[in-house]
Design brief:
The chain is mostly helical and about 325 residues long. The chain has one domain. It contains 16 helices and no strands. Helix 7 crosses helix 8 and helix 13 runs antiparallel to helix 14. The longest helix has about 35 residues. The protein is globular, with a radius of gyration of 20 Å.
């Protein structure tokens, strides 16, 4: 889907600028160009599509449906399962997160999607199946969905809506007014599109600095973290190996497909698979670049709570994996 962006990044960095491929600087700049364009395109398109959805569909009814107690967690399973079939990394999931929050979907349900989306995708599943076999792949998929469900439920019970930024509350209010205006004026789709597009562009413009800063941090880590650095610290079979793997993984930034081959190397070198999977989940599910992007929609306190709850769930899953695999 995004091959054209990769071709452009390769052409710009290696052919036009002339930086040698395989160098730290070349890899970092290539990563920066690719992910910046990809996330901005995703953000613009998804925000535009969510604007159309907000105009046409009764979001209040959807919100009420997802909030019904009689679903017994079914709304979290739905959101987490939807996250599992969307092939986004943690930063790419942020545009959809903004769209969900804007549409009034409960915050805990939205978190369930945000957590699962980078953890599980079809490419990583295919690689996992080839490298680790069917049993481990099933455990990986199911645990990724359950991690999103459990973390989403915990976060949803904490009533964290007041910790969203004022910017989010403003666009939520604007979305509600726009739906009322569209219903009153009975505008056609073509008449609504300019307003929806302008709002989508405005959101991208306001988030742009956070995208640049976040991806810049990720690019630096991608290009300059020494190979073998993490194996040195999480290869020991000690009680603190799993939490240490998560702590070391959070500052990193990669998608699941990119990190799975690294996990294979970890396992081959004797690192327990539960510790390796905990590291992988921390890398793809949480990252400093993601936190930087989320700063636009969450206060620092909410980001800390989000990272803390998800990290605790990942650590627990790592111990469980080491016990059963």
């Amino acid at each position: 889907m995004f091959d054209w962006i990769q071709y452009f990044a390769d052409w710009l960095i290696y052919s036009i600028i002339g930086i040698q491929q395989g160098t730290h600087l070349g890899d970092a700049l290539n990563f920066f160009v690719y992910d910046t364009i990809k996330i901005l395109v995703l953000l613009l398109l998804i925000t535009f599509l969510m604007g159309i959805v907000n105009a046409y569909f009764p979001i209040d009814r959807i919100r009420n449906f997802l909030s019904r107690n009689k679903l017994y967690g079914g709304e979290y399973v739905m959101a987490s399962s939807f996250g599992a079939v969307t092939p986004f990394c943690s930063c790419s999931s942020v545009p959809l997160f903004i769209g969900f929050v804007k549409g009034g979907i409960p915050l805990g349900v939205t978190f369930a999607f945000l957590i699962t989306s980078p953890l599980v995708n079809e490419v990583a599943v295919a690689i996992f199946l080839g490298m680790f076999g069917f049993k481990t792949t099933v455990i990986y998929v199911v645990s990724g969905i359950l991690l999103g469900v459990v973390s989403g439920i915990i976060l949803g019970k904490m009533n964290l809506e007041p910790l969203l930024t004022e910017w989010v509350r403003t666009i939520q209010a604007n979305a509600e007014r726009e739906r009322e205006t569209f219903e009153l004026e009975k505008l056609t789709l073509l008449q609504r599109l300019p307003g929806i597009w302008n709002e989508a562009f405005g959101i991208v413009k306001s988030v742009f600095p956070y995208v640049i800063i976040g991806i810049g941090i990720g690019a630096a880590m991608h290009g300059y973290v020494p190979e073998g650095f993490f194996e040195k610290y999480i290869g020991k079979d000690t009680w603190y190996a799993v939490p240490l793997a998560v702590i070391l993984g959070v500052p990193m930034y990669a998608n699941a497909a990119g990190i799975v081959p690294v996990i294979q190397v970890f396992v081959a070198k004797g690192i327990p698979i539960g510790t390796s999977l905990a590291f992988m989940m921390a890398v793809v599910g949480l990252s400093i670049p993601e936190a930087t992007l989320l700063k636009k929609v969450m206060t620092g306190k909410l980001i800390a709570i989000f990272f803390g709850v998800v990290s605790a769930c990942i650590i627990l899953s790592g111990y469980v994996f080491n016990a059963i695999l």
